[in-house]
């Protein structure tokens, strides 16, 4: 098996499915909503709660890495612009 086929068999790339709440091509709100939903979910159910992982997969797919870094920094500093309480 070649290196390329080994890699392709290990990783499955998928995009986030259609979400009727965000019908437009601009996915900024969808990114932000999935980010906040993930942290609300783990606050309520814990890090190991499997359904929370769907929110994380979605925001990692939708959000630019720079935004995720900025959001993480804001959470750490207590300046994140939304409540993450469940």
UniProtKB/TrEMBL annotation:
It holds the Pfam family COX6B. InterPro entries: COX6B-like (IPR048280), CX6/COA6-like_sf (IPR036549), Cyt_c_oxidase_su6B (IPR003213). It is found in: Mitochondrion. CDD domains: Cyt_c_Oxidase_VIb. GO terms for cellular component: mitochondrion; respiratory chain complex IV. Its main location: mitochondrion. This is Cytochrome c oxidase subunit. Disulfide bonds join 31-63, 41-52. One of its GO terms (biological process) is mitochondrial electron transport, cytochrome c to oxygen. Keywords: Disulfide bond, Mitochondrion. It comes from the Eukaryota. Pathway: Energy metabolism; oxidative phosphorylation. Belongs to the cytochrome c oxidase subunit 6B family. Component of the cytochrome c oxidase, the last enzyme in the mitochondrial electron transport chain which drives oxidative phosphorylation.
């Amino acid at each position: 098996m070649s290196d390329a086929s080994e890699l392709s068999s290990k990783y499955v790339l998928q995009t986030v499915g259609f979400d009727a709440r965000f019908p437009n091509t601009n996915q900024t709100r969808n990114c932000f909503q999935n980010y906040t939903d993930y942290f609300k979910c783990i606050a309520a159910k814990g890090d190991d709660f499997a359904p929370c992982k769907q929110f994380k997969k979605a925001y990692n797919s939708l959000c630019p890495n720079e935004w995720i870094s900025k959001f993480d920094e804001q959470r750490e500093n207590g300046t994140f612009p939304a409540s993450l309480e469940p």
